[in-house]
Design brief:
Elements: E1 9-12, E2 15-18, H1 26-33, H2 53-59, H3 63-71, H4 87-93, H5 97-105, H6 120-126, H7 130-138, H8 153-159, H9 163-171, H10 186-193, H11 196-204, H12 219-226, H13 229-237, H14 253-259, H15 263-271, H16 286-292, H17 297-305
Antiparallel strand pairs: 1-2
């Protein structure tokens, strides 16, 4: 074997695989791949981490190497031993659009799942790769596929404030009200993260503003707890109920905002008809909570103006 092959080859028993990290030239790569499936090199061999050359090339955006490997017969849908890594998922995760296209053209299963039941689409959506998401959708990706936690591409994009991805998924028919195993919808997750653009997109697509998780949490509660005034106003305008309690502590959006000192949020909730004297499971009102936690006199005075009782 020529000396120039040395930096590119790892020996494993009587065979060897390509070390893609140092390959850079398509023509040289094709010459190496001519040895594949012989006694010298096995194209489907795996390294110590059980990755194939195709997986490594896809992950590192060596597009020409990917194409040469595919021409030489590499398994486009191969998984590593753990089942978590596939070439298409690796490329989608890192936003290697040209590699994604090459793999799809070679017959990659666009809906294949790893051990976490994530598809290339859910991974791309989670990471905010809008163009990759669009290519995968065009190739037939299941927009409502769920992973082991019950999350879809939409909920993952909403959780990470990727408004463009959210819009692309909604336009492709994503179910805006589907829930994960915790009972969270994309809107509930977006309320937690506090992204107004995502909130508006979801509401515009028909998201249930009063959807509740398994613990009884709503998008409004997360926004109120963390002081996202603009989102609180949007949710209230969309018909969010300010008075439901959560199932564990009996907290309301008002008590959460009051005990965290979010004066403007408290004001918005009271103006929307929040019950100022509702009690949690410990018998505490929002006023009592605010007093115990030493919140500002402004919050306490505001509650009292609306008839709060200790």
């Amino acid at each position: 074997m020529s000396n120039w092959l040395g930096p590119f080859v790892e020996y494993h028993t009587s065979r060897c695989i390509i070390s893609i990290y140092t390959l850079g030239h398509y023509n040289n790569a094709k010459l190496v791949f001519a040895y594949f499936n012989t006694d010298i090199i096995e194209i489907k061999a795996k390294n110590a981490e059980s990755d194939t050359a195709l997986m490594i090339a896809a992950s590192n955006r060596h597009t020409d190497i990917v194409k040469a490997l595919l021409e030489a017969g590499a398994d486009v849908n191969a998984k590593n031993n753990s089942g978590k890594r596939m070439a298409l998922v690796a490329a989608a995760e890192k936003c290697h659009l040209d590699v994604v296209k090459a793999l799809l053209e070679a017959g990659a299963d666009v809906n294949a799942k790893n051990t976490d039941d994530n598809t290339a689409l859910t991974i791309a959506a989670e990471n905010g790769h809008t163009e990759v998401v669009k290519v995968l959708l065009k190739a037939g990706a299941d927009v409502n596929a769920k992973n082991k936690d019950g999350d879809t591409a939409l909920s993952m994009a909403a959780s990470n404030k990727h408004s463009e991805v959210v819009q692309a998924l909604l336009e492709a028919g994503a179910d805006v009200n589907t829930k994960n195993k915790d009972g969270d919808t994309a809107l509930i997750r977006a309320g937690y993260e506090g992204d107004p653009d995502v909130i508006q997109a979801l509401l515009g697509a028909g998201a249930d503003v009063n959807a509740r998780s398994n613990l009884g949490w709503m998008a409004l509660w997360w926004a109120a707890r963390d002081g996202y005034l603009d989102i609180v106003k949007v949710l209230l305008k969309a018909g969010a109920d300010a008075n439901p309690k959560d199932k564990s502590s009996g907290d309301t959006a008002l008590s959460l905002a009051a005990r965290n000192g979010h004066t403007d949020v408290v004001k918005a909730l009271l103006a929307a008809g929040a019950d100022v004297n509702v009690k949690d499971k410990y018998g505490h009102t929002a006023l009592r909570r605010a007093t115990i936690l030493g919140q500002t006199d402004v919050v306490i005075k505001l509650l009292q103006e609306y008839g709060a009782k200790d």
